[in-house]
Amino acid sequence: GAVVSQHPSRVICKSGTSVKIECRSLDFQATTMFWYRQFPKQSLMLMATSNEGSKATYEQGVEKDKFLINHASLTLSTLTVTSAHPEDSSFYICSARVQGGLDEQFFGPGTRLTVL
Amino acid sequence: GENVEQHPSTLSVQEGDSAVIKCTYSDSASNYFPWYKQELGKRPQLIIDIRSNVGEKKDQRIAVTLNKTAKHFSLHITETQPEDSAVYFCAASKYNFNKFYFGSGTKLNVKP
Hints:
The structure holds 2 protein chains of 2 kinds. Chain A is mainly β. Helices cover 0% and strands 53% of the residues of chain A. Chain A has no helices and 11 strands. In chain A, strand 4 (32-38) and strand 5 (44-51) form a beta hairpin. Chain B has no helices and 11 strands. In chain B, the strands form 2 sheets. In chain B, strands 2, 4, 5, 9, 10 and 11 form a 6-stranded mixed β-sheet that branches. The mean pLDDT of chain B is 94. Classes of the chains: A mainly beta, B mainly beta. Chain A binds chain B through residues 4, 32, 34, 41-46, 49, 60, 93, 95, 97, 103-105, 107-110, and chain B through 1, 32, 34, 36, 41-46, 49, 51, 89, 93, 95, 98-105, 107.
């Protein structure tokens, strides 16, 4: 149980375009999901907390207009990278916390974004 | 905000030896400390966690210790095996806020 999926696993796009990444909890409901960014050989940096039915809360330094987060249901959160640039190229990972569960977060497999 | 520091950044041990990874945190209100293992290109997987109401927790070859006063916690892996080779991340979190702040990671290499 507690499986999180992400789609797509890899995406290549041209500079200036927008890319949407989906994060789904497959077998549980998640009122809270989290989005992280991971550069090669570096740590996971928390970008934002996605709350079902309300606005996401962003970490300091993360541009909310650039990284749009929508959490429309208890099993789906989306991250849209708008007007992507090469510096946005990274590994994006989501995680989800089981509604009413303990503190553990379950991670998705990640999405490798390459902006040309 | 919370600041988590992790050492060492790389650790190379011989198979069968023990490995210790250390983390410190800054926010005394943090009360949940998970450890994740991440293999190359894969998702982080929880290997053990500890809450602030205990000082030590063990699961077979893996143990975690927590010193709340000093604000540091450590991961101990005994009888290491080549399949333990991966990057290990510590994290700190506060209950109900649940945001995880990760350390910088430790690349563990277990030599056969």
